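Here is a typical protein record:
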Amino acid sequence: MTVKPRSVAIVDDDEAFLDATTSFLQSLGYKTHSYASAEAFLESAPQDEISCLLTDVNMPGMSGLELQAIIRARHPTMHIIVMTALGDETVRRRAMAGGAACLLRKPILAEALIRCLGE
């Protein structure tokens, strides 16, 4: 029996972070899809194939929390991990109330990301 790798979409406007996270997840065996904005994700992502969305909060245009609300309405079972460099308690509450499985503070520790993906 062949096990299909889980598919993760990463949405972040920081190109270096996006590239590094994509490479890291691929090294763990995940199929990845990278997007520089929430709008790009919504326009072109194969959303029905994605098991997990990893999104930054602060991005130009649509925020990660706005993206989370849209995805939660369209795909209520998709695992969502929210990332932020801010230590704002309001952001944490909004992310968790919106259905995020985890909120990770940047810079993200590899162990924390692996733990969240495993949940």
Summary: The CA atoms of residues 38 and 67 lie 6 Å apart. DSSP finds five helices and five strands in the chain. The longest strand covers residues 79-84.
